[in-house]
Design a protein that fits this description.
301 residues; mainly alpha; two-stranded antiparallel sheet; 9 helices; elongated; cytoplasm; ubl conjugation; Translin_N; isopeptide bond
Length: 301
């Protein structure tokens, strides 16, 4: 047996060769030394940054929930008799969402937004989706990123009762003005999610006998898809992933328009939704078969 191994066959650690009473005792650390004071300040800074990150995550979750509720409300327009009433109610909900975004802007007033972007990006994307959906219903056009950012400039009057974040000295120097800018990536991802809501709006419109909205949505989605195609693989990875879903939504709407154009005159309005759903299922099944039957070149048949 090797001298380095004990009776149990295990290799002894290096410090086990020294008697217990001869091991070096740890010296008492001077808590007032410059090194310890520096590390304490680092600890406080990291704790404050972590707490702020958690607060932003909670605010982002609230923004996401309220934005989704606004989208669900806007989907009622296709079946509700009074569209203006729903638009007014949706504007009130979006004002509540902007109050949450105001709290985010106050948290980031003296910080670099990109350091905390991951904590708030989900909520900002959902807000862009809700605002752009409302704007499309009103104007049948796409809201620009500049128009969204103009709505996210807050003054002291906008600091309502819902805001519980105390103002800091840096904010007072800014005369009570806060601003939060939507990044281009958040804007693109929000618009990509908008296409799915427009596809659902098209389905609801067909079910209610509205044959004009599907053609308007189809033309709009085609323009959005062409715009995303120009970005291609040069854009962020998340954008390229959502491009496939965007293409699927466009295909479903175009199939609905095809069915309405060819057979719309001979099908009662209350049966148009059934024709649209059958057409969508057939298209999805054919796409799945193409993916399964597709084989690489030179592969075994």
């Amino acid at each position: 047996m090797s001298s380095k191994e004990g009776s149990g066959g295990f290799r002894k650690r290096k410090h086990d060769n020294f008697p217990h009473n001869q091991r070096r005792e740890g010296k008492d650390v001077n808590s007032s030394s410059p090194v310890m004071l520096a590390f304490k300040s680092f600890q406080q800074e990291l704790d404050a940054r972590h707490d702020k990150y958690e607060r932003l995550v909670k605010l982002s979750r609230d923004i996401t929930v309220e934005s989704k509720r606004t989208i669900f409300l806007l989907h009622r327009i296709t079946s509700a008799p009074d569209m203006e009433e729903i638009l007014t109610e949706s504007e009130v909900k979006l004002d509540g969402v902007r109050q949450k975004i105001l709290q985010v802007a106050q948290e980031l007033s003296v910080e670099d937004m990109h350091q905390f972007h991951r904590a708030i990006t989900t909520g900002l994307q959902e807000y862009v989706e809700a605002v752009s959906f409302q704007h499309f219903i009103k104007t049948r056009s796409l809201i620009s990123m500049d128009e969204i950012n103009k709505q996210l400039i807050f003054s002291t009057e906008d600091n309502g009762k819902e805001n519980k974040t105390p103002s800091s000295d840096a904010q007072d120097k800014q005369c009570g003005t806060w601003r939060l800018r939507i990044t281009p990536v958040d804007y693109l991802l929000g618009v990509a999610d908008l296409t799915g809501e427009l596809m659902r709006m098209c389905i609801n419109s067909v079910g209610n006998g509205d044959i004009d909205t599907p053609f308007e949505v189809s033309q709009f989605l085609r323009q959005v898809y062409d715009g995303f195609s120009f970005i291609g693989n040069t854009g962020p990875y998340e954008v390229s992933k959502k491009l496939y879903t965007l293409k699927q939504s466009l295909a479903k709407v175009e199939n609905a328009c095809y069915a309405l154009k060819v057979r719309g005159s001979e099908i009662p309005k209350h049966m148009l939704a059934d024709v649209f759903s059958v057409k969508t299922e057939m298209t999805s099944a054919s796409n799945a078969c193409l993916c399964v039957n597709r084989r690489p070149e030179g592969g075994a048949s």
